[in-house]
Amino acid sequence: QLASLNDKPSFSSFFSVLPLNFSLRHLFPFRNHQTCDRTHARETETGARQPPSSRKAQFLRGNNIKVDMYRSAASRLRALKGRVGNLGATRYAASSAVASTTSSSPGIFSWLIGERASSFPPLNSPFEGVSSPPSLPDYVEPSKIKSKTLPNGLTIVSETAPGPAASIGMYIDCGSIYETPQSCGATHLLERMAFKSTRNRSHFRIVREVEAIGGSVASSASREQIGYSFDALKTYVPEMVELLIDSVRNPVFIDWEVNEELKRVKDELSQISNNPQGLLLEAIHSAGYTGALANPLLAPEAALSRLNGDILEEFVAENYTAPRMILAASGVEFEELLSVAEPLLSDLPLVQHPEAPKSVYVGGDYRRQADLPVTHVALAFEVPGGWHNEKEAITLTVLQMLMGGGGSFSAGGPGKGMHSRLYLRVLNNYQQLQSFSAFNSIFNNTGLFGIYATTTSDFVAKAVDVAAGELISIATPKQVSETQLNRAKEATKSAVLMNLESRMIVAEDIGRQYLTYGERKPVDHFLKAVDEITLKDITDISQKLLASPLTMASYGDVIHVPSYESVNSIFHAK
Question: Which Pfam families does the protein's record reference (predicted)?
Fold first, then answer.
């Protein structure tokens, strides 16, 4: 039945009732128009010059023909509209109710003959018989965090979140700073050995169990912390917790699995030239620090022949202790997490938390020649206090956003990041620079801040001078405007809030904050701290940075890189 259709047929139904030999020339007499055009063309070719009065008369006659043509077309349209309307009513009317309905929206004929369209109801008018959904509340109370520290010192913490999925992670106060000369490179290898065979499961079984519930696992290692995470649906929380804890507590480092990962690490190191920025970041730490932070995060090639399962097992037994572990979850009810995790973790022995190894920043220079068409160079200075000096660490984060920078081409789309100082003042003015950006690396008690650049070897000396000038500029009063600072603060807050939209990032943030501060500070606390930053704070932190010794690192064609002494004298003139 077609009772829901309008009386008047649609444009497609109009053509369905026309004769088979119908064409548009039945509506528009193009033949007459073309005849007039051909007659005009012949007169033009003969070159006959007619008097002005004759040409005027011919012009008016041609216009009258066109007017008559359009009037004829309009009258034919009206006639066809009436005939088709009657045919459509006869063809589609299924009941007297349908036949009596005469109101409908104007169609293609109304547009062709110039009739005014009837008014439609506004888009915001509700549909009859359809109830509107409830409006969103003006304020949503943030999820509450609950935590409990077990008698052995291990902390279990969770934050509820809407949605069907959950993310759970185990975060450990352990990294490359705890390595000894014998265990150098263990952190890097442990990251790759995550979720391998345990005392209760083979690696194959772990993979199958993760796939069976549609989950994903990951691991990450830094100089101070190691993290293992599991992301899946909330209905599988018990399975997630049990598998995660088993992978962290009970690894068995089978020889063939260890050797396989050692080969992959060796391949990774052989391709380090594909990541020059990561290589320079490693070099800056080894050149700028003495002590624990100078330990390489990437396993050195010399250590690969020495690392084995026994060294990894000893390293785990010594550092994976209860007081240094945090089990953090996002999107999981705390009572459910506690009921599953506590029996699996309460038997870990209580071991005194060791004192963190010491590191001293001294500055230095690192250069590595390579057969590359470009030169990569970085300048860095110390950030005293690190995350434990919260105000300066947050100020430094805003400073990095203020300076910004990036590649010579905005990979994120036109204009992305191009409002930052390094884009406006450097990348837009020096086409020889392929990339020019600010970076930071902050730890619990110290950190690094600097500028990284990529350019051709003949321009590297100028690039170093430009980088030095930009660092000195931000340390000079009145060189940063209030508008630039406000833009950087808003960009920092936006980045923080958008990152916290991810469950996995929220779980990681909870775990790492508990390792650093012993609590998770609310996001409003950091947003307020960002809003309170002033131009004087930017100048003060910049001056404190430049007062520390310089650290330089370069890779590629380093022949034309200025000497350490000449660059250091720019910042520390005697």
Answer: Peptidase_M16 (PF00675), Peptidase_M16_C (PF05193)
Question: Do residues 455 and 482 lie in contact, with contact meaning Cβ atoms separated by under 8 Å?
Answer: no
CA–CA distance, 234 with 332 (Å, rounded to integer):
7
| Dihedral angle over CA of 202, 208, 210, 213, nearest 10 | -140
Instruction: Of 132, 324, 376, 344, give the one whose Cα is nearest residue 243.
Output: 344
The per-residue pLDDT for range 164-222, each reduced to its tens digit, is 999 999 999 999 999 999 999 999 999 999 999 999 999 999 999 999 999 999 999 99
Q: Which residues contact 164 (CB under 8 A, 6 or more apart)?
A: 233, 234
Look up residue 153 and give its two tokens. Answer: 């010192």
379: closest CA among 443, 466, 442? 466
Question: Which amino acid, residue 344?
Answer: L
CA distance linking residue 492 with residue 363, whole number of Å: 29
Neighbours of 421 (CB within 10 A): 20
Single-letter amino acid, residue 156: I
The three-state secondary structure class of 124 is coil
Q: Look-up: residue for tokens 């992305």?
A: 416
Q: What does the chain come to in residues?
A: 574
Distance in angstroms (rounded) separating the CA atoms of residues 289 and 380: 12
pLDDT tens for residues 45-84? 444 445 545 554 554 455 555 555 556 655 665 665 555 4
Task: For residue 213, give the amino acid letter.
Answer: I
> Cα–Cα distances in Å, from 5 out to 88, 93, 121?
11, 9, 19
CA pair distance 448, 419, nearest whole angstrom: 24
- Maximum Cα–Cα distance for the chain, whole Å? 116
Measure the CA–CA gap between 287 and 563, rounded to whole angstroms.
Answer: 15
Beta-carbon count within 10 A of 73 CB: 17
CA distances from 404 to 295, 407, 413, 473 (A): 28, 10, 16, 14
CA distance 59 to 38: 15
Contacts of 253 (CB under 8 A, 6+ apart): 193, 196, 308, 309, 310, 312, 313
**Cα 80 to Cα 189: distance, rounded to the nearest angstrom:** 82
Q: Are strands 226-233 and 216-221 parallel, antiparallel or unpaired?
A: antiparallel
Strand order in the sheet with 433-442: 364-369, 551-556, 374-382, 447-456, 433-442, 405-407
